[in-house]
């Protein structure tokens, strides 16, 4: 009985359940192995109570161990798109000169999303079918909240959603226009033209957004002089990639890892017109851990140090006790408050603030005022004080940025913001919760804690 009790206790403490025996995962693992992925044999996929699907280690993983590596032709990256002649026909067999008319009009993430929607449409006719079937069917980012609920969440979250919506709608309309003018006789393209929808593009966009990793291929392929390539459509860089299985490892700010591009042949600066899939079978993308993981614990990688506003809006999860969180204020918001309290900034003060960059990155975090916010308030209080050198005071703010007299200037504004967030939280308390909304509420509660701490100081 004692042994049984210990087993039950251990099972409860582990808070996970292995899922490598699920048909979908068996198919994925078989497909990956067949196509050359090498994985640390200590790792298996599991469902965790707190993070959902992730990677578990059955034995201790030590710093320096390779977690996995994938041949480049088993990742979806810029070369994958360029070598897909059928996809390129969408742009090249067109009544419009797409490479000219839409030059630098979309981000690479948007093009990746369009490509993913194209692959998804083809179902089992593409080699990526098994991988695509293993991807989440929906994402827990606030973008997908109902419109009536979005109105009650914090303005910072709404602002990010609005920017995402603009990017998605603008790029979607570009691709719809390109498809509508396509002249290809290929049946797949004809059928894709009919089926391409905003919902399929949104799913693809957030698949790329939440699951891509950084991958720099500039030493392998020559992405200069690409006027005759669909790369001409891109307004930014192409340094992201979808990596099957690797994209299932969850994030922890405490994890440390390193990625490497392993080239076993003398391959460099390949012209985009000379790309062939077999060239990339000898190039592997590898990831090593710089952290230790005990047996039967979840293995993590770090996506980069990020505050929760980015984590919930870009990736769909919230990290408790995140010291990087802050509450932002716009310069217009601060200026309006000052004006209403007989502290209107003069044109000279505004010029000084702008020239020193003190109109940006105005926020309060768990340590207090940001450097720029502190500097702006120094300008408010001391700019016309003949006995003070404001420039010197701002420089000293880099060393010491705590002055209760300055805090008192904006305390009423902070209290108003605090009260506004509390009112919104009260409205949301009557709404049925879901993972997405819970993340937003957690972040807003974090904002409350930050602002309350500031007021009490």
Number of helices: 18
> Uncertain spans, ≥5 residues at pLDDT below 50?
1-12
**How helix-rich are the residues, as a percent range?**
40-55%
Q: What is the name of the CATH class of the largest domain?
A: Alpha Beta
Number of domains: 2
Overall pLDDT level: 90
Describe the main β-sheet briefly: 5 strands, mixed
What is the CATH homologous superfamily assignment of the largest domain? set domain protein methyltransferase, domain 1
Q: Total number of β-strand segments?
A: 16
CATH topology of the largest domain: set domain protein methyltransferase, domain 1
N-C termini distance: 55 Å
- State the shape: globular
Strand order of the biggest β-sheet: 1-3-4-13-9
Cα-atom radius of gyration: 26 Å
- Could you say which structural class the secondary elements and strand pairing correspond to? alpha+beta
Oligomer: single chain
Strand content: 5-15%
Q: Please give the CATH architecture of the largest domain.
A: Alpha-Beta Complex
């Amino acid at each position: 009985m004692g042994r049984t009790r210990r087993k039950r206790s251990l099972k409860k403490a582990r808070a996970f359940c292995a899922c490598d025996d699920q048909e979908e995962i068996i198919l994925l693992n078989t497909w990956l192995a067949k196509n050359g992925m090498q994985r640390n044999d200590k790792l298996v996929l599991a469902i965790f109570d707190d993070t959902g699907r992730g990677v578990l280690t059955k034995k201790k993983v030590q710093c320096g161990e390779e977690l996995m590596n994938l041949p480049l032709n088993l990742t979806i990256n810029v070369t994958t798109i360029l070598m897909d002649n059928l996809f390129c026909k969408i742009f090249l067999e067109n009544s419009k000169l797409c490479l000219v008319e839409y030059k630098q009009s979309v981000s690479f993430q948007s093009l990746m999303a369009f490509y993913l929607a194209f692959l998804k449409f083809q179902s089992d006719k593409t080699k990526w079918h098994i991988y695509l079937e293993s991807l989440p069917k929906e994402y827990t980012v606030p973008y997908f909240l109902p419109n009536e609920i979005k109105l009650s969440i914090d303005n910072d979250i709404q602002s990010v959603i609005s920017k995402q919506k603009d990017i998605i709608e603008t790029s979607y309309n570009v691709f719809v226009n390109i498809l509508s003018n396509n002249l290809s006789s290929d049946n797949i393209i004809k059928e894709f033209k009919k089926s391409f929808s905003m919902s399929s593009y949104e799913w693809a966009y957030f698949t790329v957004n939440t699951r891509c990793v950084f991958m720099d291929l500039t030493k392998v392929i020559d992405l200069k002089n690409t006027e005759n390539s669909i790369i001409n459509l891109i307004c930014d860089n192409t340094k992201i990639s979808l990596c099957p299985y690797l994209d299932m490892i969850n994030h922890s700010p405490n994890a440390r890892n390193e990625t490497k591009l392993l080239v076993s042949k003398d391959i460099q600066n390949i012209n985009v017109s000379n790309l062939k899939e077999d060239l990339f079978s000898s190039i592997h993308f590898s990831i090593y851990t710089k952290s230790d993981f005990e047996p039967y614990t979840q293995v993590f990688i770090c996506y980069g140090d990020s505050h929760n506003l980015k984590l919930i809006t870009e990736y769909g999860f919230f990290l408790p006790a995140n010291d990087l969180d802050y509450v932002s204020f716009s310069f217009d918001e601060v200026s309006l408050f000052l004006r209403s309290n007989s502290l209107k900034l003069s044109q000279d003060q505004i010029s000084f603030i702008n020239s020193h960059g003190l109109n940006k990155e105005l926020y309060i975090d768990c340590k207090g005022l940001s450097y720029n916010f502190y500097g702006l308030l120094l300008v408010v209080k001391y700019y016309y004080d003949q006995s003070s050198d404001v420039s010197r005071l701002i420089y000293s703010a880099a060393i010491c940025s705590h002055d209760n007299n300055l805090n008192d200037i904006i305390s009423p504004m902070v209290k108003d913001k605090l009260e506004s967030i509390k009112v919104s939280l009260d409205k949301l308390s009557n709404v049925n919760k879901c993972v997405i909304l819970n993340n937003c509420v957690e972040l807003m509660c974090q904002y409350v804690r930050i602002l309350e701490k500031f007021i009490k100081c």
